[in-house]
TrEMBL record:
UniProt GO MF annotations: DNA binding; sigma factor activity
Entry-linked InterPro entries: RNA_pol_sigma-70-like, RNA_pol_sigma-70_dom, RNA_pol_sigma70_ECF_CS, RNA_pol_sigma70_r2, RNA_pol_sigma70_r4_t2, RNA_pol_sigma_r2, RNA_pol_sigma_r3/r4-like, WH-like_DNA-bd_sf
UniProt keyword Transcription present: yes
SUPFAM superfamilies per record: Sigma2 domain of RNA polymerase sigma factors (SSF88946), Sigma3 and sigma4 domains of RNA polymerase sigma factors (SSF88659)
RNA polymerase sigma factor 70 region 4 type domain: residues covered: 165-217
Domain RNA polymerase sigma-70 region: 76-139
Similarity comment text for this entry: Belongs to the sigma-70 factor family. ECF subfamily.
GO biological process, one term: DNA-templated transcription initiation
Keywords per UniProt: DNA-binding, Sigma factor, Transcription, Transcription regulation
Record protein name field: RNA polymerase sigma factor
Amino acid sequence: MTEPKDMLCLADPAAHAAALTASVRDHLGAQLRETYALLIEERPAHLVALIERLTTLLDGQDAASEARFGQDLIEVLPALRAFALSLAVSPARADDLVQETLLKAWANRNRFQPGTNFTAWLFTILRNQFYSEIRKHRREVEDVDGAAASALVCLPDQVDHIALQNVWATMAKLPAAQREALILVGAQGLTYEAAAAVIGCQTGTVKSRVSRARAWLAEALGLDRIEQPSV
């Protein structure tokens, strides 16, 4: 069943989604990834330091493999922080969310199954932590539907970044469920199946949300009016 909030963005979302050309989808995907590249630090120093402190405590026969686990955490930090920024309202809150995720992942490192999607596993921990905090502190929760999301961070003031700031502010107007799916698939590069596992829904639901989000965002940004070559 289609979620009521997902229908708010488009009068006929399926028709708009079908009308998007491959070039428009590619251009929108490039803008999403470029915007994210500016939104996040490569590897926040204090979070790297936290992982390094954890690895210094290692000893015994599993020390080498667990040190590798720590390096894997460092490598995925940019993606993890980007996802946290898409859920939280402030960079400080996002960093707190990432820190809690790192600590939980470390405490449960023996539960990770080698060969499975490490990034998706961490995203699931982070998402569960975020919504767990919401349930505990409902009166302190910021607008999780995106009304305040445009205030997450400020991109640099250079002229060539104005368009990317517009992408971020426009994306904040999407329903939360659509924005989350679009970020996981369009910006983070997860498969529909992996994104569905993170969110805890059917693959078809993710496909529908991403399709609707792409269509609305392309229209809102004017990308659906990109001139097509004459025949």
